[in-house]
UniProtKB/TrEMBL annotation:
Protein name: Secondary thiamine-phosphate synthase enzyme YjbQ
Family: Belongs to the UPF0047 family.
Pfam families hit by this protein: YjbQ
Stored PROSITE patterns: UPF0047
Recorded superkingdom: Bacteria
Length: 134
């Protein structure tokens, strides 16, 4: 197994961060297998989504609608509505595995692997990439 921890600076705003290029760099022609992407945080997840055409903005809008940043949440430390961030990983999982063929992820034409982070209280995230040879 080949593994690496990368750091992503999300700043103080809700973000969808495309990780595809970083993952491809990590794979660097390793061959066939699976890449696992793991976010070791209680308030972030990873998703496969199209980016650059507004879908990333649409995802954040949908999450705001589904998980409003208001005072309804029992979990109340941090910024107002922060409890919703702790519900996020139940909706957008903190990990995924993607098939790798000839050292490249077998993604569809418009698919990107993205970090989804609604937690404005944590500006730095780590992501563990692990390659399992087939």
């Amino acid at each position: 197994m080949h593994t690496e921890l990368i750091e992503i600076r999300t700043g103080g705003t809700e973000r969808v961060v495309d990780l595809t290029r970083r993952i491809e760099e990590f794979l660097g022609g390793l061959g066939d297998g699976l890449v696992n992407v793991w976010v070791p945080h209680a308030t972030a997840g990873v998703a496969v989504i199209e980016t650059g055409a507004g879908s990333d903005t649409d995802l954040l809008e949908a999450l705001r609608s589904l998980l409003p940043a208001d005072d309804r949440w029992s979990h109340r430390h941090g910024s107002p509505g922060h409890g919703r961030d702790h519900v996020l990983p139940a909706i957008i999982a903190p990990s995924m595995s993607v098939p790798v063929l000839d050292g490249r992820m077998a993604l569809g034409t418009w698919q990107s692997v993205c970090l989804v982070d609604t937690n404005v209280d944590n500006a730095v995230r780590t992501v563990r990439l692990s390659f399992l040879a087939g």
